[in-house]
Amino acid sequence: MITEDSAPPGVVVVGRLARGTAGEARRVVHVFGVEATAATSELVRTKCGEALSRTDVEWLTPGVGMPCEPCLGLTTGEPARSPRRELGV
Ligand SMILES: [Zn+2]
Description:
This protein is mainly beta. It has one domain. It has helices at 35-38, 69-72; strands at residues 13-17, 30-32, 43-45, 51-53, 57-60. It has a three-stranded antiparallel β-sheet. The chain has a two-stranded antiparallel sheet with strand order 3-4. Strand 3 (43-45) and strand 4 form a beta hairpin. It is globular, with a radius of gyration of 12 Å. It starts with 12 loop residues before the first strand and ends in a 17-residue tail after the last helix. Bound molecules: zinc ion.
């Protein structure tokens, strides 16, 4: 279920890949810019640099799930490279 219109502006938006779209290890909770929920592109960009297909993202309430450390600024390594398909955007 896509709930892209459910987040009010000005709040931190978090989400992860929905169950079944990726292995559990990749289903960390990413931080998104608030523009991610307003954009109409098929890809939403995480703070750590991953581009996820909007339809694969399960939007969450902050504090739920296992956080993506790069998104939180806890690590400063290379941004995770997504093997996921780019949709040509
Ligand atoms: Zn992330």
